[in-house]
Specification:
With 121 residues, the chain is α/β, with parallel strands linked by helices. It has 4 helices and 5 strands; from the N terminus they run βαβαβαβαβ. Helix 1 (16-25) links the parallel strand 1 (2-8) and strand 2.
Length: 121
């Protein structure tokens, strides 16, 4: 089964090394943010660029900053993907410390996808 990672990078900040690790574990990685909380080195940017170019790493900047903006972006992406990929071939993992993302997980499960949320400290 291929895995898709949806990452709220605003509340779970990641280094370029962590992102590279995720890119080896997941078929696709989606990063969503409203205001950029991360700083990457130029070396890290160069390492991540090929994944952006081939579509494996997708970055969505929300058009407006606001409470739960990234969560709404993750929900939107999850909905789009649920209509584009097969539940027999893909599963979802959502990395977020926002408990409201449990609703998205529940909806993905209703749509027959394997889905789970990963909370980190």
């Amino acid at each position: 089964m291929k895995k898709i990672l949806l990452l709220d990078i605003e509340n779970l900040q990641k280094t370029e090394k962590e992102l590279l690790k995720y890119l080896s574990q997941y078929q696709y990685v989606y990063l969503v943010y409203a205001k950029s909380p991360v700083n990457f080195s130029l070396d890290g940017l160069v390492q991540l660029a090929p994944f952006v170019m081939n579509g494996k790493l997708k970055v969505l900047k929300m058009p407006r900053v606001g409470k739960d903006a990234a969560d709404f972006g993750l929900a939107f992406i999850a909905g789009q993907l649920a209509t584009q990929v097969s539940a027999k071939e893909y599963s979802f993992e959502v990395m977020s410390n926002d408990h409201s993302m449990e609703y998205v997980i529940d909806l993905l499960k209703i749509a027959k996808f394997e889905a789970k949320i990963i909370h980190e400290k």
